[in-house]
């Protein structure tokens, strides 16, 4: 098996055979051929290895003929007759090594047309695989983003969530029945538990969550502020035309006002905010 | 004309100062221990008797100048209104007795529940003009009225023990008109003003909010409690004194630091939002009246379970917690701001300026509402204001036409007209007698009447504005305020305090001084006479003369609530060339007038038409006749109290709706157009709904009107259901009109329209009388696609409106099934299933995620009731009963009760009715009781004089017991029940009770048994005329030992009561004779018991005489000679009656005595434990009637529920 599969070994075997033919052998036993092939292979390997070592020893990466000679010397092999042998010229020339035929892909497995390699990639690089290996094929529908269906979907989702929640709650707590019979009550009403205090849950609703901004929003002050800004802008425009003196006054007034506000906020004279007094002697007497 | 004694002059003394100190306020026991000291200035030296108001208080001691203990008597006639009259069950008689009872305690009648006799040894203290200090020690035990403790129910308290703050425990005072006597002894008159010192000792974590300036807060020596010291230096009358104690969160108004707001824990963010613009209200009033706010501070307290939405007291108002809202709520804002503005207006007129007589109430109410109206006009706009006036006028007209003319000031008859002799006088008398209650006292008037009279007062004030002009009217107010401010800064000695009281006469004079106009006739016409005018206008166009012949008739002058009007009347004609006003003089019931038209008819000329506002508009005149008149209006400014019926062709109404700029005219046109279901009407209404320039309420009304028009036009209605296209145009999204846009409520007009149109559409019916499936689908889609995620406002009201619409689509079931088969899920129709699914889902969702005020739950309940009513669901009350329980949110409870009342009316059993009545009697929330009664009045369980299975003597007794004695502590509720009684039975004896005269012949039912029974104590009494005197002498001993006497009285009552009850209980008792036997037997021991007791013991059931005190008998004499002459007369009279009755009864007895003895024995075996509270109470007043007149007991025994509860605690009192 090895003999057939490995092209080098095959070549060596052929070489051994041709040498044997030169030496006028007609036939050889398979085992002998195998042994000789093995010996030749070992010899070539050894010589190659030594050559490489000598080459590297002398700091090169490519061996010279000298390295080969050194290798022969090192092995103790007399190679003087080699030249004569080569020059005798009666050797059969081995056929060139046949490039191995790539295994033919079966038609049924190829999908689509293979892409050719782009110019910047050297031709020796492997070919592209079949397109199906890298082309993304959409496997789901594109989302529909028109208004109507988005609303539809949002509505359905909301309803489902609500339904699931109420169903769960209805199953986990006591219910009222709108009908006389108990069976098949598909419209259970959750019995209510009185909250205490009753007004808290009613006045602080939880059905929606609002931005704190909305909860604090003061439409009137917003409008006022806008008006004020508008006025200020106008004033600024007007004042630009007038003398610079007045321009100074305006911000001054403002600062005074804001200070006033700040002060009043800091100290509010309201009896309910005052501290509770300690009992005085008189009051103890009265008590 | 010598005027009678007024409220401020009738008493023989003046009040200078009063100290009120409440020390032991206990939330656990719901009790209060307190002390008051009244500084009284006698007006004459001979003053021996002081009459003071006090109710349900337990009085311990009365001191004069701290040294002399004075003797006192106490009685409360409201504990048994019909004293001797035990068998009549007619309101005719009750109304009389009710008035008598009210007058007996009316401080403005120089009367009072508490009669203090100045002992002779202290007589030297009394001198004209010298201050006399009267100190009274008292306590309150679980008060039933006047003061309300909000404490979580017991069972819940076990679950979580928390601090008061965590539990939101608080208390506050309330009352109907002058009811401060319910929580402290005082002169409970609007006319008796004095300065106040108020002290309240409360737990450390509590805040006590009261009238006047908070001087200081001081810890008690044990550091566990603190005392709030208030001082009110502006003379104020007792009804304007109030108190609220609770773990309040305090918010000082950032704009006005004198103003402080209080709310319950957890509600601070809402409080800040709610009170955000309050300072503007103050500024507005101060500017308008050009007078400063009269007090130095103002406080607003928001409390739970409030008696009414708001009540203004001196320097503070107590408001309902349900007025609070966050910034994302729209609908509530209008209501809340109006309520707060009204409360502030009442600070000026109502608190600062009090009134001379209660009958001057209309002035303060009228002026404050008028000011509040001006504020509303400024902040909500003129359209809102006009619409409000219009609806008020309609309410007044409706009330007057149903019940009779409202007389704002009944204290004085109108001056007789010089021409028509005393026509108005007789007129008035006639009107007055029509009412089933007396309008002569605040404590007998129906709450409905009072409410309507407030509205009328406001309207009259507005009429005055039209007569004398806004500026001058404000000057009159300014003058009153200036005088009062001046008076307030003086001491009592200056005698100027009278300026702080307003009265009809004073006001009329002030108008005269300021304007030079004598308004006496106006006052006589609209204030001292009841009723309104009713005009009927028809017109014909005379082409030849180019005139319009107008005929104004007043046909119905003899009808209830309507009277003839004489005087000028404005008629406005809109012609092609403009608006023309014509002042017609109304002198007769029929007035005809030819008005020459200014413009000629010109059909096809294109020219703009000028309107009353001056603008010129294009009109499509093709619909017109050849008359140049486009529309006619009568009294367009509402300067009279009137109802107007104008007859004009439909196209004129349509023009009026399309082009008249006045909202009232538009509203009237809409009302009129209901009668003309034609395509042009449809076009006009559609135009109005779509018109963005139009006032939103008009647009909403037009929508509802279009529903009716569409239903009337069902046969030839073309196109999709009414308003579907309009709704889609306004609210459908751009890409898909059938899907509603995401909610955006920035424009309130559109918001209200968005709420209203689905509601209006739900009323549409097709030719089969059912709601078109398209509409139902449309509504369900609105639910489905509702998306509030991008909105800055809450959509809870909108969703509630959708649920309501869904309910409105329901029509009576068309069932193929046989009658009587039970309704099950399987045989519901597809539509019902869809509706039900939506409702159950929303209702269930509310449990986890409640919305503001549970608006959706409220509407879901109503929708379920509709489904039940129309046979889609089995009619069952259980669901509503559970929602109606105490502990739920009030709006939910009210909705459930509304459904329950509706159920009772349709298929209720007596049990269900008594469930409702039990709530009506016993619910802890007084506000709910009142509203429940209003619901009952709106849909009474059965119609008067119709046979009903619910109508039974038991029901009569139940209501009667309440109005006769059980509700002495809550005037409003008592009068509410009188209203209910009237609605069910009229003023005569209920038909379900057999006539008294026939009782011998007919089968006897319960009430007559009652009569016989109750006669017994009197029998005893008549036999022992001495009792009275004995009891008088007993006073002292009872004062000494109030607790003991109380218990004993109870014991005393029980013995005879059992006898009573045995047969009262028994409904099967049919025949009189056997009862009589019983009576005979039962009466004997009782008689003995009483006479023995009263003869031997002065204490009327006291175990033994505690001892006589010097001066005891002397005082006795005093009492009967001066103080109680009136009551004595009364008892004498009744005594005579009783004797007569007794004789009758005796005759009966002898006749039948031996016939049915065996039967009677059976009855006696009945379980006496079945005694019901009601019956018990019934007999209490009956027995009490014996003693009431004469017996003065230290404790008032307000009702049997509490009479003996907690008496043990009291003995701890130092």
Automatic annotation (TrEMBL), chain A:
<feature type="region of interest" description="Disordered">
    <location>
        <begin position="224"/>
        <end position="265"/>
    </location>
</feature>
<protein>
    <recommendedName>
        <fullName>Transcription initiation factor TFIID subunit 8</fullName>
    </recommendedName>
</protein>
<dbReference type="InterPro" id="IPR009072">
    <property type="entry name" value="Histone-fold"/>
</dbReference>
<comment type="similarity">
    <text>Belongs to the TAF8 family.</text>
</comment>
<dbReference type="Pfam" id="PF10406">
    <property type="entry name" value="TAF8_C"/>
</dbReference>
<dbReference type="GO" id="GO:0006367">
    <property type="term" value="P:transcription initiation at RNA polymerase II promoter"/>
</dbReference>
<feature type="compositionally biased region" description="Basic and acidic residues">
    <location>
        <begin position="227"/>
        <end position="243"/>
    </location>
</feature>
<dbReference type="InterPro" id="IPR037818">
    <property type="entry name" value="TAF8"/>
</dbReference>
<feature type="domain" description="Bromodomain associated">
    <location>
        <begin position="6"/>
        <end position="81"/>
    </location>
</feature>
<dbReference type="GO" id="GO:0005669">
    <property type="term" value="C:transcription factor TFIID complex"/>
</dbReference>
<dbReference type="GO" id="GO:0046982">
    <property type="term" value="F:protein heterodimerization activity"/>
</dbReference>
<dbReference type="InterPro" id="IPR006565">
    <property type="entry name" value="BTP"/>
</dbReference>
<keyword id="KW-0804">Transcription</keyword>
<keyword id="KW-0539">Nucleus</keyword>
<dbReference type="InterPro" id="IPR019473">
    <property type="entry name" value="TFIID_su8_C"/>
</dbReference>
<dbReference type="Pfam" id="PF07524">
    <property type="entry name" value="Bromo_TP"/>
</dbReference>
<keyword id="KW-0805">Transcription regulation</keyword>
Automatic annotation (TrEMBL), chain B:
<feature type="compositionally biased region" description="Polar residues">
    <location>
        <begin position="1191"/>
        <end position="1214"/>
    </location>
</feature>
<feature type="region of interest" description="Disordered">
    <location>
        <begin position="1091"/>
        <end position="1214"/>
    </location>
</feature>
<dbReference type="GO" id="GO:0005669">
    <property type="term" value="C:transcription factor TFIID complex"/>
</dbReference>
<dbReference type="Pfam" id="PF25577">
    <property type="entry name" value="TPR_TAF2_C"/>
</dbReference>
<dbReference type="InterPro" id="IPR014782">
    <property type="entry name" value="Peptidase_M1_dom"/>
</dbReference>
<dbReference type="InterPro" id="IPR016024">
    <property type="entry name" value="ARM-type_fold"/>
</dbReference>
<dbReference type="GO" id="GO:0003682">
    <property type="term" value="F:chromatin binding"/>
</dbReference>
<dbReference type="InterPro" id="IPR045357">
    <property type="entry name" value="Aminopeptidase_N-like_N"/>
</dbReference>
<keyword id="KW-0539">Nucleus</keyword>
<feature type="compositionally biased region" description="Basic residues">
    <location>
        <begin position="1137"/>
        <end position="1163"/>
    </location>
</feature>
<dbReference type="Pfam" id="PF17900">
    <property type="entry name" value="Peptidase_M1_N"/>
</dbReference>
<dbReference type="InterPro" id="IPR057991">
    <property type="entry name" value="TPR_TAF2_C"/>
</dbReference>
<dbReference type="GO" id="GO:0008270">
    <property type="term" value="F:zinc ion binding"/>
</dbReference>
<dbReference type="InterPro" id="IPR027268">
    <property type="entry name" value="Peptidase_M4/M1_CTD_sf"/>
</dbReference>
<dbReference type="InterPro" id="IPR057345">
    <property type="entry name" value="Ig-like_TAF2"/>
</dbReference>
<feature type="domain" description="Transcription initiation factor TFIID subunit 2 Ig-like">
    <location>
        <begin position="531"/>
        <end position="649"/>
    </location>
</feature>
<dbReference type="InterPro" id="IPR037813">
    <property type="entry name" value="TAF2"/>
</dbReference>
<dbReference type="GO" id="GO:0016251">
    <property type="term" value="F:RNA polymerase II general transcription initiation factor activity"/>
</dbReference>
<keyword id="KW-0805">Transcription regulation</keyword>
<keyword id="KW-0804">Transcription</keyword>
<protein>
    <recommendedName>
        <fullName>Transcription initiation factor TFIID subunit 2</fullName>
    </recommendedName>
</protein>
<dbReference type="GO" id="GO:0008237">
    <property type="term" value="F:metallopeptidase activity"/>
</dbReference>
